[in-house]
User: Fold these one by one.
Assistant:
Number 1:
Amino acid sequence: MIHKYDVTIRIMRESDFPYMAKWLNDDLVIEYYGPGLTLEQVIAKYGPRISDEHYVMPCIVEYKEESIGYIQYYKVPKEQLKIYCYPLKETIYGIDQFIGRSDLWGKGIGTRMISALLEYLNSRLGINTVVLDVKSNNLQAIKCYQKCGFRVVKELEDSSLLMEWELHSSRN
């Protein structure tokens, strides 16, 4: 689907469920992405997504041809737009992601995978605004998102920050 730098983002498959279960049981991943999920819970949650029965597009991130993380994108539902205080008529996409191998954190891979997805969303789908929420104590992720062009737009009730990326060249 997307290949840029040494990162590939591809649609998630059933064969990826064991990776997800492993990653979602890593204490460091759970701390920021949580909660931990068993293999059965992973299948129940992500099965409908890979079967196209859910609005989220689930993807696996590969680094140097090895599966290392998860990233998803979706059109933000109207109920969530209300919570985020965006006009309901706007088309805004959301992303969520994590690198499941904590030994690869801090190496710039997150910045590359997010930048590649943002470029894809803009060039292929015409998306100009993308949001994400991040736990306010996840300073490493916040720094990564800022490198990708996200800015904090508001604090959310659950000790998270809403961050927004907007393609500014379309407004120049």
Note: The longest strand covers residues 66-75.
Number 2:
Amino acid sequence: MKLIDEAVYAKTGKHLNDLQRGIIEGTLKRQKYSEIAEGYNCTPGHAKDVGYELLQLLSDVFEEPVDKKNLKSVLERQDNLNISFGDSSRNVIGFINVCSDSSDSDPKNDCPQTQPDRQHNLTETEIEAIAKLRQFGLDSTQIAEALQLSLDEIEKLKSEEVS
């Protein structure tokens, strides 16, 4: 839900409301609009109208058609964008942000010699994920957090893209 809310906020400047969240959760549980409406004290027609608008908004946000039948698969693809690093499933947390937090310092001098050189080797999949998240309007800090990468890596790629 956090991914969806952040993506919608990046596109519209507004967060999801309770009914919109309920519609997403209910849709993922294969509930009908009448069932969703009961939990939010509104009419099934109102829930359906809000649901239609929400699915159109999600189609814009995720840049692919979204409806009640494919919502789960669209969200799974979007979530995988944030956590997938290609074929390998590896834990990179141990290699991130272990150096000095000071932005003035040179990471090569602050890191122990045994530290793997993870800081400068973004995979093609990570680079594509960063570009996609930029399209969603996320800033470098949000992207670094979502992909569990250092802010330096994201900023270095951003400066390379500009040049």
Note: Confidence is low (pLDDT under 50) at residues 83-120.
